Structures are given as C-alpha cells and as structure tokens.
Amino acid sequence: MLDYKLLEAMAAVARLGSFDRAAKELGLTQSAVSQRVKLLEQRLGQPLLVRAHPIRPTQAGLALMRHQQQVAMMESTLAASLTEEQDDSHTPVRLAVNADSLATWLPAALARLYRDHGVLSQLTVEDEELTLERLRRGEVAGCISAHTRAVQGCRAHRIGALRYRLMATPAFADRHFTGGITEATLIGCPTLTYGRDDELLNRFFARHYPQVTGRPPHHQLPSSQGFVDAVLQHMGYALLPELQVSEALSRGKLRLLCDDHIDVPLFWHSWRLQSPVMEMVGQVLSAEGKQRLIQ
C-alpha cells in the first residue's frame, strides 16, 4: 500500500524540479519533503528522483507521478460529489496548453468549465510540440498537443486546427516586400520566433517556398500577445493565427503577404482511466474547438 503523503511529496519535487519549490507548494520544510521522498524510495527499494539540476524523475518515478496525478483527480471528483453545496465546490485541474490556443479559442472553454462545473484551471504553457511531454511525465492530467499519437496509457482525439497566415504591417510590407514574396525578401528581412523549438515558419517555407533555405534574422519573443504586438510595431513579418488577428486585419493594421497558409492540428490528450471531471473537460474543449477551429 502506497503512502500518498510520501507520493505527493515525490511528485511535487519531480514536477517543480527542486525540493525547495516543492516544500513551498506543500507548506512543508525542505527537510520534511526530503525525508518523505527518501522514505518512499526506501520502501520501494529504488531511486525515484535523479538529483540533478533540475531534479527529474526516474522511470519508476514517472510511473508513480502518473499514478499520483490520476488519484488526485479522482479524490477531487469524489470530494465534489460528497459536497452538499454543489455550486460552491471547486476542482483544480492541471493542463498543459499551447500559447496560441490560450490567446484565441481556449479562454472561452476555460470560462465555461469554471462557470458550469467549478473547474479551477492550472495551466502550464508550452509549444504545442512539447505539451505532450508534460502529460507523459505525469505533471498534468491532460494536454493540447500537435501530436496525433497518444502516449502509453492515454488517448487522443482531434479538436480542430489553428490556421496561420503570413502577415506584416502595411508599412513593413511596403518597405521590405515591394518586389513581392521571393527567396531574397523572405530570407533578408527580420521575422519572429517563439523560441529555439519553434519550427512553424520552417515548415511553412518547406511547403510553399522550398527555395528558401536557412533562417532569416529573427526576434525571439516567447509570448503569444507579445508576438502579435511586435508585428504591429513593425519589428518583422510572421505567421499569425487568423483567430487572434482578425480584427487587426479587417481594420488594415495588418496585411496578408500571400494567399498561402498552414494549419496546425490540435489534439486533446488525456489518461484512459479518467475521472468524470476529465471526461467533462474533454467534452467542453471538443465542443469549443468545433465552433472556433478549422475542422
């Protein structure tokens, strides 16, 4: 029989990457958290954490993190079902989501989850290519990912796609693209990227402008709204989600540089063994996706 206080401490250290941050989250001393982890490792007869910087779980630790995440969700659901004042009950749910979803269609779904079901969203924001790793590690109960294939023990279904188009301000376009979209203009003027893992523009080039090789000079801005604001401030051209900038386009603040686009598919991933709360979360996200995303 597992001692879930010990398991909770181990999972917090693995998820947050340090004993100190885990202690602050759990309201314990760092020594108490360390003792709980050591006791759990002694009882199971194997290491559960790699003491590196940051701390990370072993394979056994990963399995226990996933188990702890599911148990915590089921306990939260049970507590809500036993509460007499159902309208006053709240259920925290950890999710990993991509920044562009959070900046476009996702807030309406999160608001509905809170308003109708008392769900308190606790979000980790990553690139849509990386959110699945958070689920695999047991750090979250569900994620929105660009990957169609589910990890072991999970299931996935498509909720739609975000459509991206190449845009700039009219002033930037008039300065840098007077001769149209060519290899020289695309590679010669600045663009924007979220970070080192952002490959969306390269995939766009490969599909529509294969003659473009290399990466243009670029600003790195790991913020969805900051990304749009930088384009509006004439700092570069970029692929932007249509949903996020439809008003700016209609008002002439932004200009489409070409008719080509690229769609990023989004999939909802969650554990096969689900609580009623997570079933409902998936249903709400799917319904919102059908209304707002490309199908």
Automatic annotation (TrEMBL):
Record's protein name: LysR family transcriptional regulator ArgP
PANTHER family named among the record's database cross-references: HTH-TYPE TRANSCRIPTIONAL REGULATOR ARGP, TRANSCRIPTIONAL REGULATOR
Residue intervals of the HTH lysR-type domain: 2-58
Domain of life: Bacteria
GO MF term (any one): DNA binding
Gene3D superfamilies in alphabetical order: 3.40.190.290, Winged helix-like DNA-binding domain superfamily/Winged helix DNA-binding domain
Organism: Ferrimonas sediminicola
Assigned protein family: Belongs to the LysR transcriptional regulatory family.
Keywords: DNA-binding, Transcription, Transcription regulation
One matching Pfam family: LysR_substrate
